[in-house]
Amino acid sequence: MPYPADKPSRAPSSEELRARIPGWGADLDPADRPSVPRERFDPRATGAWWDLPEQQPETYPRERSIEHARLTPVFGTTYPPRGVSGAIRRLAFRRYSEARAAHWLLLLAADRVDVVESSVRELTSGRVSNPVATGLRSEVTHGGPDPRTTARRVDHNHRWMDPIVTAGPLVAAGVGAVLVGRRLLRRP
């Protein structure tokens, strides 16, 4: 009975189970396990010569998880957080645990803000990315829309949003730049 009213009896001991079930507990003693040599800690076999890897120098304040006492020994440095998106990322790490949805939602929002910031940087620098070089030509020449028109795809329901998500930030940054430029030119 899965849900008896009476308290269930105590779980049987290992000796009782071994006597009742042939072969039960054959791997309880580590000496009897065939994989025991692999389970032994042997740092020389792995090539690790350290107790703790050498700490990579921190050239700028990195985001730190509130769940860890220290920064990881090695971390990425190719794209340091900056601007509004960097502030959002630092807030996510400073205030919320990685177990909270708010942490990850803030990081997703920071990514979206970073897309807008990158678009504005492109426009203000005069080096706008070439949309043809990003695969637009192969969409036309290699039948790009065909696989997306079948209803078997999982992303069929939100396919209509893809152009908005892809081109939306660039269009918004362009419109914003034009509005700011017009306002600046109208000033006396």
UniProtKB/TrEMBL annotation:
<protein>
    <submittedName>
        <fullName>Uncharacterized protein</fullName>
    </submittedName>
</protein>
<feature type="compositionally biased region" description="Basic and acidic residues">
    <location>
        <begin position="7"/>
        <end position="19"/>
    </location>
</feature>
<feature type="region of interest" description="Disordered">
    <location>
        <begin position="1"/>
        <end position="44"/>
    </location>
</feature>
<feature type="compositionally biased region" description="Basic and acidic residues">
    <location>
        <begin position="30"/>
        <end position="43"/>
    </location>
</feature>
